[in-house]
């Protein structure tokens, strides 16, 4: 994260709040947001749950609102067990995009009581309770308070659903729509931190596109070094890199410094399953998974859920078959998945399964046993695939980056709802896309929990500390 304070909520939660806060009668309404938080490299608040305050229990007008303290007490009770931050949200139906003097006075009383109720565990402990307002159209402005009751503006409130909505604390009025491919897009991208997991054939192209479009910070994660066989598809690699076994992340960082020095690059030479990689990727606003392994996708799934990050996953395959006339390409296919917080995960969508994860692990840990189990018919996904080439990688990389841009700067004529997954086959010129409703979403207890222990809900990761 490249800013002091951020508040993130799933798009489904954002819609519920908007519907409740603007029932159509032109009067103010209220809700309580319960947020987990991380404070590494900046404060990030993640909405875990909400309490909608019933209209009949409030005194509501077009420009004022009072509501019972019972709901604040309910919030405190719900927050206490997990040490959650509380954000008191109300609507401004008149469209005033800022806090009024009445809001300021109310915060001094109510937020102070919330902070005083918080346990003092250590000298630097801050519960970071605060307040927020929403105006018609869904834009949110928020602030948090420290123990001295000093207000700190939340720099970004982000709602991630079918579209990626960014509301910046510095704006005097919200920008509901920024046109893709223009100056406004470049200005917004410069404020974002994006992680790219895997910077090999497809990932190096994804990272370079994001770099040249002006992303403010790029986190690149890859444990591997350059080999001569990589030179046909990893951008910016040279023969000297293969001879010297240069790290792939170092190659990208070196190239980025020459192409766009303004972009901060965090190069992480680790497997994505390593603790340092997980904690670094957790700081990103958006995650691209361009890894080859199913285990990496599984970890990316869990990071994105825990940190309420939008996740873009891309896969490319060129399977071959051997008919009577010799080996031929069966198809040239690709897949782009967009996973939004609270929606179906890559696991829900069958990108990986426990059986496939087991097969991948066994192939790496015990190749002989893997071959035996494949022969016995126990291991799925054992078919061999021809290596991808740069033109296919570039096609896939452009597809996944365009999917991100369509979400952040909507340009599709029919909207984004129908594009939870996009599949294509270049051999048959086939393209297919499906909606989020196509998949069964299993509740993930990790949603918005941050980096609490055990990390990503996997006790094995604690052994890596």
Helix/strand layout:
Blueprint: E1 5-10, H1 11-21, E2 30-38, E3 43-52, E4 59-60, E5 65-66, H2 70-80, E6 85-91, H3 101-117, E7 130-134, E8 140-145, E9 151-153, E10 156-160, E11 164-168, H4 183-189, E12 193-197, H5 201-213, E13 217-221, H6 239-244, H7 248-259, E14 264-268, H8 275-281, E15 286-289, H9 294-307, E16 311-317, E17 320-321, E18 328-329, E19 333-339, H10 354-365, H11 367-375, H12 390-408, E20 421-425, E21 430-434, H13 459-462
Parallel strand pairs: 1-3, 1-10, 6-7, 12-13, 12-15, 13-14, 15-16
Antiparallel strand pairs: 2-3, 2-6, 4-5, 7-8, 8-9, 10-11, 16-19, 17-18, 19-20, 20-21
Give an account of the 3D structure.
The protein is of the alpha/beta class. A hairpin with a 4-residue loop joins strand 2 (30-38) and strand 3. It folds into two domains: 5-168, 3-Layer(aba) Sandwich (Cytidine Deaminase, domain 2), CATH 3.40.140; 183-462, Rossmann fold (3-Layer(aba) Sandwich), CATH 3.40.50.720. Strands 9-8-7-6-2-3-1-10-11 form a nine-stranded mixed beta sheet, sandwiched between helices. It has helices spanning 11-21, 70-80, 101-117, 183-189, 201-213, 239-244, 248-259, 275-281, 294-307, 354-365, 367-375, 390-408, 459-462; strands spanning 5-10, 30-38, 43-52, 59-60, 65-66, 85-91, 130-134, 140-145, 151-153, 156-160, 164-168, 193-197, 217-221, 264-268, 286-289, 311-317, 320-321, 328-329, 333-339, 421-425, 430-434. The radius of gyration is 24 Å and the shape is elongated. The chain has 13 helices and 21 strands.
């Amino acid at each position: 994260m490249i800013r002091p304070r951020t508040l993130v909520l799933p798009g489904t939660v954002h819609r519920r709040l908007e519907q409740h806060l603007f029932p159509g009668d032109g009067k103010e309404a209220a809700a309580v947001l319960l947020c987990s938080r991380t404070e590494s490299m900046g404060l990030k608040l993640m909405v875990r749950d909400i309490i909608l305050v019933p209209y009949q229990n409030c005194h509501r007008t077009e420009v004022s609102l009072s509501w019972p303290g019972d709901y604040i007490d309910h919030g405190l009770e719900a927050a206490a067990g997990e040490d959650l931050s509380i954000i008191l949200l109300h609507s401004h139906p008149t469209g005033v995009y800022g806090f009024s003097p009445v809001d300021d006075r109310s915060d001094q009383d109510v937020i102070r009581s919330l902070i005083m109720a918080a346990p003092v565990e250590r000298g630097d402990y801050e519960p970071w309770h605060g307040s927020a307002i929403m105006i018609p159209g869904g834009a949110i402005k928020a602030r948090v308070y420290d123990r001295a009751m000093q207000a700190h503006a939340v720099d970004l409130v982000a709602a991630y659903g079918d579209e990626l909505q960014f509301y910046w604390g510095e704006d005097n009025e919200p920008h509901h729509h920024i046109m893709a491919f223009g100056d406004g897009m470049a200005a917004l991208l410069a404020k974002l931190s994006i992680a790219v997991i895997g910077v090999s054939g497809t990932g190096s192209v994804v990272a370079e596109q994001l770099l040249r479009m002006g992303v403010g910070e790029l986190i690149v994660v890859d444990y591997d070094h350059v080999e001569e066989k990589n030179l046909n598809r990893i951008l910016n690699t040279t023969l000297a890199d293969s001879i010297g076994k240069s790290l792939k992340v170092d190659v990208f960082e070196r190239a980025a410094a020459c192409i766009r020095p303004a972009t901060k690059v965090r190069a992480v030479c680790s497997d994505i399953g390593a603790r340092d990689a997980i904690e670094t990727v957790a700081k990103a606003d958006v995650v691209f998974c361009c890894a080859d392994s199913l285990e990496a996708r599984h970890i990316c799934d869990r990071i994105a859920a825990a940190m309420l990050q939008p996740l873009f996953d891309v896969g490319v395959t060129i399977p071959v078959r051997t008919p009577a006339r010799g080996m031929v390409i069966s198809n040239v296919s690709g897949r782009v998945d967009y996973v939004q917080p609270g929606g179906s995960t890559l696991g829900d969508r069958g990108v990986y399964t426990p059986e496939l994860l087991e097969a991948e692990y066994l192939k790496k840990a015990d190749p002989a046993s893997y071959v035996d189990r494949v022969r016995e018919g126990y291991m799925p996904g054992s078919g061999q695939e021809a290596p991808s080439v740069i033109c296919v990688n570039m096609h896939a990389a452009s597809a996944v980056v365009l999917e991100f841009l369509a979400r952040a700067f909507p340009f599709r004529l029919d909207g984004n709802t129908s594009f939870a997954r996009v599949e294509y086959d270049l051999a048959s010129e086939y393209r297919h896309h499906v909606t989020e409703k196509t998949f069964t979403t299993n509740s993930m207890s990790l949603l918005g929990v941050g980096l609490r222990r055990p990390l990503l809900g996997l006790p094995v990761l604690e052994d890596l500390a």
